[in-house]
Amino acid sequence: MKSSICVIGAGIQGVCISLHLIKKGFKVTLIDRDEPGNSASYGNAGHFSPYASVPINRPDILLDVPAMLLSSTGPLALKWNYVPKMIPWFIKFIKNCSKKKMMHTAKYMHQILDLALPAYDELFQDIDLSGLVENRGIIYFWTDKDLKSRELEINIRKELGAEQVLLKPHEIHDLEPHIRQIYHGGVLYPSARHARNPGKILNRLFDLFLKQGGKFKKENVETINFSSDDKPLIKTNLNSYNFDKAVVSCGAFSKQLTDLVNEKIPLDTERGYHVHFKGNDHLLSRPVIFLNRGFGITPMEQGLRAVGTVEFGGLKNPPTKKRIINLVNNAKYLFPDLSEHYDEWLGFRPTLPDFLPVMGPSKNHKNLFYSFGHHHLGWTLGAISGKIISGMVSGDNTNLNLDPYSSTRFS
Ligand SMILES: Cc1cc2nc3c(=O)[nH]c(=O)nc-3n(C[C@H](O)[C@H](O)[C@H](O)COP(=O)(O)OP(=O)(O)OC[C@H]3O[C@@H](n4cnc5c(N)ncnc54)[C@H](O)[C@@H]3O)c2cc1C
Question: Nearest to residue 407, comparing CAs of 233, 258, 253?
Fold first, then answer.
């Protein structure tokens, strides 16, 4: 008989892992404290970004941080009450900003990003996606002020073989004529796709999981213990369960569980926000990112979704109204005639200081697996992570080098 597996967390990671495990014939129970579709996997910018292998841990970022923090329109903010708690993470991040570490992250992000879209194509065969995914690429643009930093990114992506088309201002205007012409240059990533409603896609994949015999429990996992033969015993707010194996895929909340099994993984969160401008989605044909201000706008079913900013402030602090105002003002800077915004949303990117995810077995328990920490790219990497983790759970051979994603790198 096939083993019973518990997947904890029904974001894009957990749902894709569950679907791949079902395909392999496992009995899968997915547990989430919430209905699927309220997490980071609902509110993101919807980019499928297979080209985006250049990480944020770059040598030049450290020089840019003070200016970013001081700028009222800039992409970065801190909740000061959280800074002391984040100091160990910041120190590890700084150590990962050397050129060598940056290239290591870029190489191993590229390894999985390159497989991300084919992995989705496999899962998407079985759901109705009409009108929900567009293949029109993504445009990044910038002003002269930001040019130097863009060159580094463009050069590394070229080295790794990412398809990119440099754009002159008039070419950006031809592609997206409604944006105010504040830019001096840009780049189109033609291989990128975008979701017109990430929450709806997540729910369609979740419904497929149920249709294929998967079980769902809406419960909060409180502890993970282990039997004498090292099998996981999961205790929730309502029940206790025995499984053969378990996977933790709780996004930014995963650390609460990994701490309980005595593994000190330095996961933290980069908080991000979105707002919607109803009925304005005709103003854009594809997502755009204005790099100087670190935010983007995606045309979605809900209207234009303005999304972005990085705020270090942990999981418990309330949303910061100033970040929302910043996002609204930035969107109106590009589109001065936008209507009133609605749906002010805060979400939690799960981020490790080396900007690689953790995917693999736990250091201490062979029947416990992890898949979290996909930071700005967790939506893109849902299906491929599902494939990788289901392969690890069933002990398949792979020609990928999966060691760089192991949690043991932090031991
Ligand atoms: C503003 C913003 C924009 C983004 N844009 C993009 C983008 O354009 N492209 C891209 O690729 N990525 C993007 N991302 C990143 C991406 O959204 C995340 O990396 C990804 O959604 C993480 O998925 P996940 O399944 O790991 O976690 P989540 O989606 O956070 O899901 C975790 C789930 O675990 C559940 N959970 C937590 N603890 C417990 C517990 N103890 N018991 C039971 N359940 C629990 C939660 O309820 C939740 O449902 C963006 C993120 C943000 C915040």
Answer: 258
Distance, in Å, from the CA atom of 404 to the CA atom of 359, rounded to the nearest integer, reads 9
Upper half-sphere CA count for residue 362 (Cβ side, 13 Å): 26
Ligand 1: which residue has its CA nearest to atom 26? 251
Mutate to test the pocket of ligand 1, among 44, 298, 389 (most ligand atoms within 8 A of CB): 44
> Rounded distance, CA 9 to CA 253, Å?
9
pLDDT of residue 60: 85
Phi-psi region of 137 (alpha: psi -120 to 50; beta: other; left: phi over 0): left
Alpha helices (H) along 165-297: 169-175, 198-211, 254-260
Cβ–Cβ contacts within 10 Å for residue 78, how many?
14
Give the SS3 label for residue 403: helix
Closest CA to 411 of 367, 376, 360, 375: 360
Residue 39 in contact with ligand 1 by CB distance below 6 A: yes
**In the prediction, which pLDDT does 149 show?**
67
Ligand 1 center to 197 CA (angstroms): 15
CB-based burial label for 201 (10 Å; 0-12, 13-18, 19+): buried
Q: Are 132 and 200 in contact (CB under 8 A)?
A: yes
pLDDT at 146: 61
State whether the beta carbon of 373 lies less than 6 angstroms from ligand 1: no
Beta strands at 185-189 and 303-312: parallel, antiparallel or unpaired = unpaired
Nearest atom, ligand 1, residue 379 CA: 11
Q: What is the DSSP string of 267-330?
A: -EEEEEEEEEETT-GGG-SS-EEEGGGTEEEEEETTEEEEEEEEEE-TTTSPP-HHHHHHHHHH
CB of residue 17 inside a 6 A radius of ligand 1: no
Report the atom number in ligand 1 closest to the C-alpha of 14.
25
Q: How far is the CA of 354 from the centre of ligand 1 (A)?
A: 18
CB neighbour burial string for 374-401, b if at least 16 within 10 angstroms, e if fewer: bbbbbbbbbbbbbbbbbbbbbeeeeeee
Q: Which of 404, 22, 30, 56 is nearest to 243 (CA)?
A: 30
Q: Which residues of the chain have pLDDT under 70?
A: 1, 145-149
pLDDT at residue 148 in the model? 65
DSSP H/E element including 103: helix 99-113
Q: What is the CA radius of gyration of the chain?
A: 21
